[in-house]
Design brief:
Length: 131
């Protein structure tokens, strides 16, 4: 596992999307993060930094800032929540359902039922038929 930090010469969002697509498509990539403020791309995984930087240089100006082991993520202890009753959770979801699916609850006018009547050539001898 390696963590590689690249300095990019990005100009716009279109270039950023292309860079993210190339970086995520590279073999061995586990995670990608982009800092647009500093224009830095951090890639973590079993990757070859030289091959990745050569692909990125085709899109924009790219330099390798650092290569090293990935930093251990700082784990913050979150306070444990009391267990909720599943029925309360279900009730909450049912209240939110109409907002996502309004057509299931509201129809401005009743939909007409359409019936189709099909006739054959045998029933109407004056019909035009192209064989």
């Amino acid at each position: 596992m390696k963590q590689v930090v690249f300095k990019l010469g990005l100009h716009d969002e279109k270039c950023k999307k292309k860079v993210m697509k190339v970086a995520s498509g590279h073999s061995g990539v586990d995670s990608i993060s982009m800092d647009m403020k500093d224009k830095k791309l951090t890639v973590t995984g079993d990757i070859d930094p030289v091959s990745l930087v050569s692909k990125l240089r085709k899109l924009c100006e790219t330099d390798i800032l650092s290569v090293g082991p990935p930093k251990a993520a700082e784990k913050k202890e979150e306070p444990k929540e009391a267990k909720k009753d599943p029925k309360d959770n279900l009730a909450e979801l049912l209240k939110q359902y109409p907002a996502y699916h309004p057509q299931a609850y509201y129809q401005p006018y009743p939909q007409p039922i359409s019936h189709y009547y099909v006739t054959s050539v045998d029933e109407d001898p004056n019909a035009c038929v192209i064989c």
